[in-house]
Write a structure and sequence with these properties.
167 residues, alpha+beta, SHC Adaptor Protein, 2 domains, three-stranded antiparallel beta sheet, 9 strands
Length: 167
Amino acid sequence: MAADMPLFYHGAISKKDCEELMGKKNKDGAYLIRDSETIAGALCLCVFKKPVVYTYRILKTLSGQYALVSSVGAEEIYYKSLDDLVQNYKRKRQGLVMHLRHAIKRKTALMIQAATQKRVAICFVVITHHGFAALSTFLETGLYLNKLDENISARLPHAVFVMLSAP
């Protein structure tokens, strides 16, 4: 998997290291993709617009497609590859703070880390006075979350939504 990743993918670098790389490049529209430090299997698209590094979450579906997580209500667009995703966001006015202009390419080979090879299960549980329903997805190396319908809380005003996660 790591060998197939584009050069703008930096793997498991920290947010701090990412910000240092962006600062050295010091060009609006500079970007790279790294592993998320908080969500296993997710990626971060980091975009520089002086003087801030903006971070956008990328999730990978079980079918291997990528989607940039955007605001609630926005339609998700799925891409076959990270290259396809980046090509789309190189165009102006696609929802990012700045369109992508300058790839920050890694200079070293990637190492596959054990953490990205773990299996993770996430289960959404909706509890109502009629009982409960579990909406779950089994996740393996990629991350795909079933989206709860935005109107579900209006239809179930007394429901409790719980997200359970286990490595």
